[in-house]
Amino acid sequence: MSTTAFVSPDDIRTLFAQAMSSMYRTEVPLYGTLVDLVAEINDAVLTDNPALADQLDRNDERARLAQERHGAIRVGTAAELATLGRLFAVMGMHPVGYYDLSVAGVPVHSTAFRPRTAAALAHNPFRVFTSLLRLELIEDPALREQAAQILARRHIFTDECLHLIAQAERDGGLEETEARRFVLAALETFRWHSDATVSLDTYHALSKAHRLIADVVSFRGPHINHLTPRTLDIDAAQAAMLARGIDAKAVVEGPPPRKCPILLRQTSFKALEEEVNFPEDGRSDVGTHTARFGEIEQRGLALTPKGRALYDQLLNQARDAGGAGSTGGDYTTRLANAFAAFPDDHDTLRREGLGYYRYALTEAGRADKAAVGYLPAEALIAAGLATADPIVYEDFLPVSAAGIFQSNLGGEEQRAYAAHANREAFEQALGLKVEDEFGIYQRLQDESLAALRG
Ligand code: OOG
Ligand code: NI
Q1: pTM greater than the 0.85 cutoff
Q2: Which of 116-154 are b and which e, b meaning 16 or more Cβ less than 10 Å from the residue's Cβ?
Q3: In Å, what is the CA distance from 281 to each residue of 199, 285, 328?
Q4: Which of 227, 228, 202, 203 is nearest to 215 (CA)?
């Protein structure tokens, strides 16, 4: 068999992202509304702002935009997580970042499976925020044991899916027909099931421990709980959601509106209350469950450790002022005031080493190889021989993620668990190390600098 017949993992990821998107459109029609609304807003922004359109073109970001999504799932056991890691690897998605959400009262820790190279990201940046339930955080030992037993009995992957993962690992890839079968088989794991696997009483007991525990334990698999398109103007998207009567979250998570967007801003519509059948002595009880929602995000500059430390400090300052977290009425003002201390022009952000940039020669630079050979990057920019464009943040923010979890678990803020981050336990469950995001952005920046002189 010749390896040239293998479909590239990037193409498998694109097929998978498209399949997930059409499945979720059917399952949660309001998601389709969001996708359409975001497409309209993005078109309008690009028409009004040719400089931004040029920047996206220069950085291979224009084409990926219409396809760009992230999703989120939650699994219950180490074995489930480890197999997911293998499944995502077939599509060129690898674990990046460790997120501890127990500090925010959510009994999970998480990573994001995503592509890591410039070429793979430009092809399709599809990422899946993946959480592992921390059963040890269930206080009642009997309930903890019951949840573990229920999870131990379920099989979240089809036999065909497991078979094709093993085949891809053994042969080093999948050919066209198998790749298509793999995508369909993988899709099954993330499908919604309106039939629970536990009785209504068990569901209530799990819910009382934490609604998220009930969401993970009561079903046959880790249903995709949202898919998020990327908008170029989240304030316009938020206004459009409200104008259409969509029940949007009150506060946009992340940094305030800025001239130079940084990291990630997100908003969502509240989870739907859906009918679920709970098995009971050969019949079933009808109840409801709220899990699935829609979300929109705007992505900006990836920050260096220095920039990120400043972001964390200012966000804490805004949240702590008055002790109100992000729920106080004047949060938007507090956030804007705190972030006045964060530079908001790209020259300063870059020169102060707060963010990562992708360097490229301008036409003049390409014509003047001699100058390019000896001038430092800042001098090339000053002379109009090179550009530096923001490298887009591809990851997540734990405080925002906690806010998204909370607003979809019924709103009330949960107390923090006494547990602490346990990255080693997570990596052991996954069977892989999670990569640090900063190293990836640094590499992208360094590659662009090296290419200037290439
Ligand atoms: C994941 C919430 C995190 C985000 O965008 O920060 C997330 C979940 O609810 O399972 O998706
Ligand atoms: Ni999300």
Answers
A1: yes
A2: bebebbbbbbbbbbbbbbbbebbeeeebbebbeebbeee
A3: 9, 10, 47
A4: 203
* Residue pointed to by tokens 């992957």: 157
Closest residue by Cα to atom 5, ligand 1, is 401
Which ligand is nearest to the Cα of residue 403, counting in written order?
1
Q: Is the pLDDT of residue 2 over 60?
A: no
Question: Which neighbouring-strand residues pair with 100?
Answer: 109
Mean residue pLDDT across the chain:
93
pLDDT at 418: 74
Mutate-to-test residue for ligand 1 from 24, 224, 396, highest number of ligand atoms within 8 A of CB: 396
Q: How far apart are CA 258 and CA 256, in angstroms?
A: 6
**pLDDT band (50, 70, 90) for residue 322:** low
Do 326 and 317 form a contact (C-beta atoms < 8 A)? no
What ligand is nearest to the CA atom of residue 409? 1
pLDDT > 90: percent of the chain:
80
Segment 372-389 mean pLDDT: 93
227 forms beta bridges with 71
In degrees, rounded to 5, the angle at the alpha carbon of residue 326 between the alpha carbons of residues 322 and 327 is 85
Q: How many CA atoms lie within 13 A of 193 on its CB side?
A: 20
Give kind and range of the element (H or E) at residue 288. Answer: strand 283-290
